[in-house]
Amino acid sequence: SRFVASQSERYRNKVLPPVNIRLAGEITTLPPAPPEGHRSPFSVILWSLGLRYYAFEHTPFWGSLGAVRLFVVYHEGEEGKPLQHSLGLHKGLVGVVHAFALKKQNAQNNVVITHELFHALGASDKYDAANQPVYPEGFAEPGDGPHYPQQVAEIMAGRIAIRPELARIPAGLEECVVGYKTAWEINW
User: In this structure, are residues 156 and 139 in contact, taking their beta carbons and an 8 Å threshold?
Assistant: First the structure.
């Protein structure tokens, strides 16, 4: 909530009302997994409806109207092995975040959670197929000077551009900003 407040102030010259984050209890059933392999439009629609129904089943109806509902699935994880892709759906205000259960990963988990929150609010990804930030919208500081190295990440790029072929994952939200295109997409 502090990150959203500080970033919104950059665009609105005022702080938005605080983001109200409520943690719910543990859910013992996993959200539906997205279709694997060849994704036909029909399979994606069925999965999307299944995720919305899952959200409906596991959140109070009246208390969640107009609220983004993110389900965080924690994994033990293996060193060097990536987790399943997290996702956020703008239509439905719902998302699934796959996160590491290690306490030392909390700061990076918060980057992923915030990234998916912004997807649910309408923001698009700002990285290419190789997970490299796309210039200029995926750069936190596109400016007129040298593009590399960047010092912070644009939240929807999810990585700090070091060189054209190299980017690193930010350590936490303190190394992230909301770029101009993302701010426009979420109506700031």
Answer: no
Which residues contact residue 60 at a Cβ distance below 8 angstroms, ignoring those fewer than 6 apart? Answer: none
Q: Is 160:116 a contact under the CB 8 Å cutoff?
A: no
Among all chains, which residue has been given the structure tokens 């060097």? 80
Crossing angle of helices 106-120 and 2-12, in 10° steps, is: 50
Low-confidence stretches of the chain (pLDDT < 50) are: none
How many whole angstroms separate alpha carbon 177 and alpha carbon 153?
A: 6
Longest dimension (CA), the chain: 51
What is the structure's pLDDT at 37? 76
Six-digit token string for 149: 């190295």
Tokens encoding 51: 């995720």
Q: What is the pLDDT of residue 15?
A: 63
- DSSP three-state, residue 186: coil
- Number of CB atoms found within 10 A of residue 53's CB: 11
Report the C-alpha gap between 116 and 120 in whole angstroms: 6
Instruction: Measure Cα distances from 66 to 52, 78, 93 in Å.
Output: 13, 36, 8
Q: Provide the pLDDT for residue 14.
A: 66
Q: What is the pLDDT of residue 47?
A: 92
User: How many residues in the chain?
Assistant: 188
Stated pTM of the model: 0.90
